[in-house]
Amino acid sequence: MSTRTVARQCTLCEAHCGILVSVDNDKVTRIEGNPDDVLSHGYICPKATALADLHSDPDRLRRPLRRVGDGFEEIGWDEAFALIGERLRAIQRRHGRDAVAMYLGNPAAHSSSVIYGIALRVALLTKQFYSASSIDQFPQEFAAWKMYGSNVLMPIADVDRTDRLLILGANPAVSNGSVTTMPDARGRIRAIRRRGGTVVVVDPRRTETARIADEHVAIRPGGDPFLLLGMLHTIVTDDRTPPQATVPVSGWQELVDLVTPCTPEDMAPRAGVDPDTIRRLARDHTAARSAVAYARIGVCHQVTGTLTHWLVNTLNAVTGNLDRPGGQMYATPPIDAARLVRLLGSGYGRWTNRRGEHKSFRTELPVVGLADEILGDGPGSPGPVRALVTYAGNPVLSTPQGGRLDEALESLDFFVAVDMYLTETSRHADVVLPPISHLEREEFDFLFPVFSVRNNARFNDRVIEPQPDSLEDWQILARLALEVVPVPFRSLLTRPLRSVIDRISPLRLGALGVLTGPHGVLRRGRKGLTLNKIRRTPGGVDLGPLQPRLRSLIATSDRRLHLAPDEFVTEAHRLLGADETVSEGTEFDLRLIGRRHLRSNNSWLHNVPTMVKGRDRCTVLMHPDDAAARTLVDGQPVTVTSRVGHIEVPVEVSDEIRVGTVAIPHGWGHDEKGVGWSTAAAHPGANVNLLHDPKVTDTFTGNAAVNATMVNVTAVTAP
Ligand SMILES: Nc1nc2c(c(=O)[nH]1)N[C@H]1C(S)=C(S)[C@@H](COP(=O)(O)OP(=O)(O)OC[C@H]3O[C@@H](n4cnc5c(=O)[nH]c(N)nc54)[C@H](O)[C@@H]3O)O[C@H]1N2
Ligand SMILES: Nc1nc2c(c(=O)[nH]1)N[C@H]1C(S)=C(S)[C@@H](COP(=O)(O)OP(=O)(O)OC[C@H]3O[C@@H](n4cnc5c(=O)[nH]c(N)nc54)[C@H](O)[C@@H]3O)O[C@H]1N2
Ligand code: SF4
Ligand SMILES: [Mo]
Q1: Does position 284 have pLDDT exceeding 80, yes or no?
Q2: Probe ligand 1: pick from 135, 367, 696, max atoms within 8 Å of CB?
Q3: Is the distance from CB of 201 to CB of 219 less than 8 angstroms?
């Protein structure tokens, strides 16, 4: 038996494209798109092949590491767990439960092991819990909670059936969709136009998505709430009949009162979009047979993140496009995760960070505050957090800390990183626990079918047998949970408890979830799904288009859709009355936004040679007029300075970006000592998050607002 082909999904980003992996004696010889995959139909992006490089990467850790002096040595798993257990238990005994913090990163969400990440969090019983969600979709969740009663009820865009797609602050042609899982977003967008529909992209940059759309609206960064208020003004002025919806609606009059004074003429300067365009966008949204506004990271990363997502959802609802084909909808996934957890509550405001600036949401605190919770007021008076566990995250590069997180991690009493690399973050750890590679996992994803544009059930077969004495994330996390939970007679009980836990694999839980889920045999009889049935169907099982189901999901106490939650209306009034000219006329004259590249994925694919070959990608993108005004030329090294930091990158001159705006990608800055990424070290780039102020956040959630930081750009002066 030499060459085999295994069907699974690429687990690098939310699209989870179906792939066929050919293996010859445990060596991957080819990765290609699976034409039979029911969601991606053969599409893959260039990153899929990185899965093989990641697996064979000599820099990838295979054994646990323990810190000795400035370096690390390999140790056995049992020894590692015993050491961690002792230290974490001692710290919690001495300083209280909240002395141990936990951070859960993005790839955690791409594996069913995440269930055990949550189990570890519960076992730690700490209020100091953080995740990448607070530099990501917190605003979207908060808006969903207030409008539909649960943070998990974020509606998704039915792109495969819509007649009009209005995209704000997302670049799906590169990202392949997020909180609307759409592999081959390019193909899906082209299909809208082919069937006679229209696509409009609202973005300060003429993005890869804008280039294949019917229209690009180059909004001013942060201008979205004004654009949306102006559109809603037009809609309610044209027709004051309350909207029809599949559930009863409240707040219509409050919404009308709010938007009536927001004329497109008044909104135009603050949106950076002319009044006629605002009116036209509004009328086209209303007139289309079906239409959906879809917004993502570009608007989450704003001080107005929550407010903007509320207005986006409201625009869809008032034009009759919520819970109907072609509009904003909810999936009916094989494991109905949203339905199962929607009544849990949002945990908003149950506790705060030590200074009382940030409220807990989803029972976590925003990650922008983590460094401060560790460092406190300095060496004599540290913060409440003395130890940290990170799982699949690299917050040193991915969160705005003004450089303080590096220092904070170094000052911890104890730090455990569950990661397969020595990263800018895990290099500070006392123990690093590496899981097996993505291709060694066998699993059933239960999260992204909740956000997919078409209902589907797909299995991930194992491609390569893991080496003996290696562990999966969930096994590592379950062992950690056992180590930290206060168990009487630990030495006697650990072994039997371990054998019980070993049997509760995420796969077994998944099988149960499918069986009892909306498509499962328990509900549908013999024709229904089991995990085995899904496993035997290599491209997955197609479960049909999205279905209206808000009526059964809505979780507000009065089971109404809330169009105008009080705090949003109040905040909108505050925003409309605010003086926005404060930051203008200062030494910082450019607005910095982010950008993503097809061959990059946050911070951790830069060690794969094929992902970093070619032109330098960590550049500051600048309009020719702005470059000329500063006598800068393409490729020239420049210093980008904000109120809290400065970095050096080359300038890239292009008219695809709006005048007055510059863009730098995140996830770079691999030049720290002790990082185990040898390929990445050869073209490190710079960490853009050193420019972002952790104090600038979304008003409601504390989500990092990294998309309108004021900066200046100057030529690097000779030393
Ligand atoms: N300025 C700016 N900052 C941003 C963003 C932005 O647009 N602009 N985007 C933000 C967004 S949306 C996100 S999601 C965050 C991401 O932020 P993070 O999740 O903190 O960072 P990643 O770069 O995804 O790092 C993932 C880490 O997990 C490890 N890893 C990969 N796979 C696995 C696995 O299967 N198991 C384990 N245990 N480890 C694994 C990798 O080696 C890497 O160290 O970044 C955010 N930061
Ligand atoms: N290739 C690749 N794919 C990825 C990732 C990756 O790093 N690389 N990361 C994955 C992750 S973790 C996530 S969360 C998703 C994110 O997926 P997307 O949300 O599609 O991410 P971005 O490409 O960052 O798109 C954000 C867009 O917002 C624009 N923007 C910035 N400020 C504003 C503003 O004020 N208003 C408006 N209207 N637009 C603005 C930016 O120019 C940018 O084009 O992508 C996922 N997919
Ligand atoms: S878009 Fe690319 S990285 Fe994302 S799942 Fe598909 S192949 Fe993988
Ligand atoms: Mo993300």
Answers
A1: yes
A2: 135
A3: no
